[in-house]
Amino acid sequence: MKFLKSIVVVSIVTFISRLLGFIRDCLIAQLFGASLVTDAFFMAFKIPNFLRRIFAEGAFTQVFLPILVEYKKRKGCKYTKEFISNILGLMILILIVLNGIGMIIAPTIISIIAPGFVNNLEKFNLSVSLLRIIFPYIFFISLVSLASSVLNTWNYFLVPAFSPILLNISIITTLVFFSPFFYAPIFSLAWGVFIGGVLQLLYQVFYLNKVKILIFPCINFQDTRLWYFINKLIPVIIGISACQISSIINTIFSSLVISGSISWIYYADRIMEFPSGILGISLSTVLLPALSKISSKSLQHNYSKLLDWGIRFCLIFSVPSTVFLSILSKPIIIVLFQYGNFSINDTNMTQKALFAYSIGLIAILLVKVLSSAFYSKKDIKTPMKISLYVILITQLFNILLIYFFQYLGLALSISLAAWVNVFFLFYYLYKKNMFCPEPGWIKFFWNLFIATLVMVLIILGLLKIMPDWSIGCMTYRILRLTGLCFIASCGYLITLILSGFDLLFFYKKVDKLVNC
């Protein structure tokens, strides 16, 4: 069960990272609440994250990793390392230029993505200052992404999964111990991000050297492999940019509505990232190399079976996660954030955004699985085409929903657009004969429905006997919430097994496909 073991290991490490992320966000909420300074920080932090998702973890990984897997299998290590060296040299050159330009035009960037800040000079200047500190993070995290792809190709999944923990530790440390030394304590968060990026890169370089795959940069523009990679990369950048531009447009809208909206959406999004990160990142991290490996062997039937397995695995965990977030949205926010400067009003506003986000959780996770199918076959144009459809639809939703629901409409539009994305991905998978569902889906859905229904009844029953969630310290609240989730989860899994779903066979099945 090596494949499943890899998913479990990555999931556990990602869980620790997300847990530290929650501790970080709890501290931010207690110290700053949902205020002018948090709006400024979250806006500044959004820019390097926007670029990271496009160039680093997004387009780069999805194109680079399948090519890397193929070269390593068919051309050998020496040939593959020469290719990595060339890509590394080009990436460093581009990132240096990008960072220099970004820091110079920081005021222009803030003016474009947060027009609502222009009339508030204090918020605008603070956002610009924070952005200039945070911007170099894109340099470090992009190189970390390259190192992660190399390590994943050589089956070292644990090291890249552990890397984000260093970022959270850095931010927490600077916030707790060094914020009093800044004239505006919010600057400690920006420097925490900067230092975290440096630590992540140094950590991965250490392990690349340890496993003897540390490669030094070299640019050769006459290398055909470099131009092959660039030709594959450009359409993916366009496609992923479409999704990220949609996110930026959401940010522009949120800067124009009531103050605090950016923070409420951020806190709701952070809670959403807990299940989507643990399951989505873990599954896509391991699934993409596995699908690429099977695709390189031209084993289409096994390829379709593995994709079928990935979709079912995703649903087994995403369906109960959606139920937890929708029913327990308010208790979760009270337990995690309602302390200090984070008011009851902030809780109510964040809860509405979280509920809107939860509608699209299953779709968001399915997108990660289904898009891996296209990238593993180096089909770049189809996801790009779908992304362009989705950005247009998202903006139509934005215009319509923000009029009726203000900031809440922005979260809702993302959820609805995710389902549209899933529809198009499934449509093209069938059209290209890349996926044929395995037998037993009706029974699978029935088992899932019964288990989810039992879980809902358990949650509702326990909520009736629970005291008010605002009672007690954070530890006491977390223990109550954890206990409720544990009992409900046990009820879900036991019901799933009793309804006839063979979990053991389901888990063993995947290794036969991957190691064929």
From TrEMBL:
Membrane-topology descriptor: Multi-pass membrane protein
GO MF terms held by the record: lipid-linked peptidoglycan transporter activity
Location(s), subcellular: Cell inner membrane; Cell membrane
Entry annotated with the keyword Cell membrane: yes
Ranges that cross the membrane: 7-30, 50-69, 90-114, 134-158, 165-183, 189-208, 229-262, 313-334, 354-374, 386-405, 411-430, 442-466, 478-507
Record flagged with keyword Membrane: yes
Main location (coarse class): membrane
Biological process terms in GO annotation: cell wall organization; lipid translocation; peptidoglycan biosynthetic process; regulation of cell shape
Family of this protein: Belongs to the MurJ/MviN family.
Role, per record: Involved in peptidoglycan biosynthesis. Transports lipid-linked peptidoglycan precursors from the inner to the outer leaflet of the cytoplasmic membrane.
Name listed for the protein in its UniProt record: Probable lipid II flippase MurJ
Organism, scientific name: Buchnera aphidicola (Nipponaphis monzeni)
Gene that produces this protein: mviN
